[in-house]
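Entry 12.
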Amino acid sequence: MNKKTLNRWWVGFIPYVLSLTVVTAAMASSVRYDYDREVNFSAWKKVAWQASGPVDLSIPSQRIRRALEYGFKAKGYTFVERDSADFVIAYDAAAWKETRISGRYYGPAFGRSVDMERVPMGVLQLHVIDAKTGRIAWRGAVSGVLAKNGDEAEKKTAKAVEQLLEKFPPKKG
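Predicted 3D structure (tokens):
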């Protein structure tokens, strides 16, 4: 491949990489949810944690539980024992590192630059289960860039849960 062909290849490649980076960044802070349209969410007042195995006592898990409890209480729900709850909640969380690539073209005299960065990402998925039927009534997920330290993590977790719970209970219509 000669130098001229290589330069043409890079000129076409860089916008493609930049568009992928923009698409990835736009998806990074999304909230997705779905729910059972047959469930009467307005009748629910009492919530409980789903007891499935040992409770995770890690700091991130405690942070998520606090944020979820605060969010549900702020919506007017009361936490009770599982056997008297209208619905139960459970969550899953995952983290990974995403590669983000950006590039710049400085002109024929200065060439091109390609930067690669590994960004810590995470997703929180919330499951809302009808206590009477045991079926999932609502499920939502929020994803975004993870925090770099504990103070930032507290704020980001609270904001992520707030964004997620904006969609619960679902609005009819």
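Annotation: The chain has three helices and six strands. The longest strand covers residues 87-105.
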